[in-house]
Design a protein that fits this description.
- The chain is mainly alpha-helical and 181 residues long.
- Among the domains are: 66-108, no CATH class; 110-180.
- 85% of the residues lie in helices and 0% in strands.
- The longest helix is centred in the C-terminal third of the chain and has 48 residues, at 133-180.
- The protein is elongated, with a radius of gyration of 32 Å.
- This is Reticulon-like protein.
- InterPro entries: Reticulon (IPR003388).
- Its main location: endoplasmic reticulum.
- The chain crosses the membrane at residues 6-27, 100-129.
Length: 181
């Protein structure tokens, strides 16, 4: 099995371009009889090189892009912390289910296959949704209602269990206090 390594295409592009530029210069020197100073001025990529010399990064655009990246990173960090700390039970359960599903599927398929399938799904789902918008919205409303109902049941049970535990704790604390007196 081949291990992961740096792709060979950048090396190939650089070497092929080097061969091309060298071949053009040597051909012009051999058949044109030009001096070496004229050959430097007649570079095959002279127009591209002239444009590249004038390339600059706009400082304001760079600051805006950096600010946007930092803001996005902050939002992502706060969202991840919210999910990890279970601030919203429903959101944390959905994240856990999604991660479990991703982990399970990744044991069946390679990463390349999953990325390929993800790209296909990414571009086909919007078209399928547009064609079946009414049906999908109706089914999503039913599923959302069922999930909200189940989360409500779970929350009410958790509140009941917490109340029972607190009552037992308060009762045992009161009994311990009476014994000490």
């Amino acid at each position: 099995m081949r291990s992961a390594s740096v792709p060979a295409w950048p090396f190939t592009v650089v070497v092929l371009n080097l061969v091309y530029v060298g071949a053009v210069k040597l051909t012009k020197a051999f058949f044109g009889g030009a001096n070496t100073r004229a050959l430097e001025d007649e570079h095959p990529h002279a127009a591209l090189l002239a444009q590249a010399r004038h390339l600059q990064v706009d400082e304001a655009a760079a600051r805006t892009a950096t600010t946007m990246a930092v803001t996005a990173a902050g939002v992502a960090t706060r969202s991840a912390a919210s999910v990890l700390l279970a601030e919203d039970l429903g959101r944390s359960l959905r994240a856990a289910a999604a991660l479990y599903l991703l982990w399970t599927v990744s044991t069946w398929f390679s990463a390349k296959t999953l990325i390929g399938l993800s790209l296909i799904v990414l571009f086909t789902i919007p078209a399928a949704y547009d064609q079946n918008r009414e049906i999908v919205d109706k089914q999503l409303a039913i599923a959302s209602e069922m999930v909200d109902q189940q989360l409500g049941n779970i929350k009410s049970r958790a509140i009941g269990i917490r109340a029972d535990i607190m009552a037992k704790f308060d009762g045992s604390a009161a009994a311990a206090t009476k014994k000490e007196e």
